[in-house]
Each structure stands twice: as structure tokens, then as C-alpha cells.
Amino acid sequence: MSTAEIPHDTPESYPRTARTTPTRARERATYDRAFVHGVLDEGYLCHLAFVREGAPVCLPMLYARVDERLYIHGSTGARPLREAGEADPGLPVCVTVTHVDGLVLAKSVFHHSVNYRSVVVHGHACAVTDEEERSTALDALTNSAVPGRADDSRRGSPKELAATAVLRIDLEEVSAKSRTGGPNDEPEDLDLPYWTGVLPVATAYGEPVPADYLAPGVPVPGYLTARGRRLR
Amino acid sequence: MSTAEIPHDTPESYPRTARTTPTRARERATYDRAFVHGVLDEGYLCHLAFVREGAPVCLPMLYARVDERLYIHGSTGARPLREAGEADPGLPVCVTVTHVDGLVLAKSVFHHSVNYRSVVVHGHACAVTDEEERSTALDALTNSAVPGRADDSRRGSPKELAATAVLRIDLEEVSAKSRTGGPNDEPEDLDLPYWTGVLPVATAYGEPVPADYLAPGVPVPGYLTARGRRLR
């Protein structure tokens, strides 16, 4: 990423804080804004953690990034969305996005590992009420899972929009971790007879399955067939 | 699952509690033990949430199930593992496992959805100190990501085992949610021109990449080549 693409008031890294500094494997941590954005933009499923009655709760949610904001959405009746709307200055949350890239097989069990990229966001989830921001966020959420889809479907009616809560989490306290490459075995283990290396892992997509009520002849849109990794 | 496979004192469902009862989409929730085990056994990556200084923390971790217990492990120096070892009766945690099976494209944005299966476990993470249980758990953790691998690698030395913390979470307060099938559009939207259906999603595996120090002629083990879905 060239510095020309970064607004002048946005440093290239997120500031490091006590809770974004790992106690170990610090060499796997990064605060680089472009790396964080890359990890976030590749995915659409996050795990959202919050505290309810003193105990942790962790739920899978869809998300989208718009600049330095993450958005999640759901029914206005869903508990976490309702709680975030009522809390001031928002519900304390931790949002984590993880991509597994490979299973790392070493000679020894101890050095088995996983190649991955993850982003952890600490912040507050706040209800978005501004209609323009809600509209931008909802389009981004649709396009996060299926890029190009927002413009190729019927957008929300007033009634549907009224039933949809949108939450924003500002990207302020953010860190990423990653591991890449092959196994790192002990020198004295190198002659052991076991296969060692990496089994690549990725999310992949199958052939689109039309709805049973889809009229014949409607072509599969290019944004689906052009989708990255395919299942065989 | 036949009832003959279930010990007589184990009911077929986990008991429903206040926090495992969703406020909405209850029809997507299940407490069926065999369904929960199936979701857990298909994966190896969980998101572990806990509370630190009043705020939620959510981290990706490997896990394994052994009967009615989940195990996670890590360095004895890692913060969450240290905190769990010191807490009595363990660190309150929420462990969530999610599989995305498909992106559901409806005529309207509002009815877009995701086909998925997820399990949420509420409980306490306790340090495992019994050597036999630790050994069983560590083998299960190795085999969780790569079934068959524990017997085909060098097991931990006393020094390596001393540096490894193992935590247990009992499967007591557990629920699953899932969505399957095609989109559910409003009757008045059915004639809209947009493609509708499901884009299947799955985790897939590539060709194993040998370590640069692997001696020539070591065959790729069958437990890697036999691995389910493949990338193309």
C-alpha cells in the first residue's frame, strides 16, 4: 500500500495498547492498517463477544468494514443488538475474524501449528440511527458476503428497515496476528521418519443452486461465477 | 444415533437454560446431543470468549472434543491459559464453533441469509493436571485438526509437556443453531428479475506442501490425501 493512499491524518498502524500486546509470540502480532483491512475485507463472518450478567457470550455474526468502522446487523429483537442500542456509550465488545490458511505438520507434536491470519477488535458497539449511514452499512453488509449483490436485489422497505438494527464498532484498538510458512522442528528431530509440511486450507465455493421458485433462464450472475476458490 | 449408543445416564438432549434459549429464531435452535457432537467433531477452530478486567476478549483457538468435554491447549505463558489455571472453579468462558455452509441470495436484501451450523458452549475452563487426562487431551487435539496424526509424529518430551497448558470445558450448558435450505422470499417479490438461490460454502484442502527439510521419498500419508473436500 503506498502512503499516497492513506489520508494524512491516518497513521499506517493502529496504536498498540496493553490489551492488544500479546504476552507471547509477539513476532506474530502486527498493527499494520493495510494488513488488518486485508484480513477484514477477505471475510464476512466474525465472532462477537460481549458480557452478559458478568459472563462472556460469543456469537457468530456477519460484518462489513467501511473505512475505519465495522458494521454488524440483525433483528431489532435480538438480545445483543437491543443491549447495544440501550448501553451508553455502547456495548463493550470484542470482534474477532480468523482465516485458517494451513495445517502445519511437524516431526514432533509440540511443533504442530496452524497458518492463520486473525484480527481482534476491542471497542464499543453502538446503534446507528442516521439513515444515510444505515443505508451505507446495509449495502456494505450485503456486499461483504457477495460483492456486487446490493445493486442486484430489492433493497429494504421502510417496514423491513424498521425491523433491522445496525451496530457500529470503530476501528481504534485493533491488532492482527498471523503465522505463515512451514514447520519449525528441533534439529535433533529432522531425521524422524514422519511426513512434515503444510496442508493448505481455504474457504471455497460450490456451484450455485437456484431457488426452486427461480424462473427458468435467469442467468447465474457474474459476481457468483467469478468467486475465488472453487470446490472440486 | 441409536439410543443403544448413549449411556443410560446421558439424555439425548442438553438441558435448556435461560442463556441457551434464543430470544428469536427459536426454530433454528437445537439441544440435540448428536447434532452438537457432529458440529463440534467436524471442526477444530473455535472462538473462545472470556472476561478480562470487565471487558470481553475473543480469541481463535484449536479445540478437541472427548466425550462430554472440550479441550483447548496453549503455552503455559499465554494469558488466558494462565488465568484459567489460577481461577477457581475455572475461568468463565463461552466457546463457539461455526461452520458456514452456504450464502443464501433472496430477491430482497432483507431475506438474504446464511446457511450455517454453530454450537455455543457456556462453562468454565479448568486446568487439567492429571497426566493421563492431559495425554488423552493432547492426542485428541492433534487428531482434531489432522485425524490419525497423533500416532504418526513424535509425542511431547517432559520439557515440552511442562510448557503446555491443557484446559477442559465440560459440555453441560450447550446449544446449537442451524439454517438450511433455499431463500424464503415474500410472495410479492417472486417475479423480480434477480437470481436467487444458494452459493455453497465449505472449508477445503489443497495439495500437501512438504517441508523444505523433508527427506525425498517420504510418502504423503493417507490421512492427508483422504481428506474430505478438495480445492481445485
UniProtKB/TrEMBL annotation, chains A, B:
Gene3D superfamilies: Electron Transport, Fmn-binding Protein, Chain A
Superkingdom of the source species: Bacteria
Cross-referenced InterPro entries: Pyridox_Oxase-rel, Split_barrel_FMN-bd
Region (Disordered), start-end ranges: 1-26
Biased composition (Basic and acidic residues): 1-11
Transmembrane stretches, start-end: none
Name recorded for this polypeptide: Pyridoxamine 5'-phosphate oxidase family protein
Organism: Streptomyces boncukensis
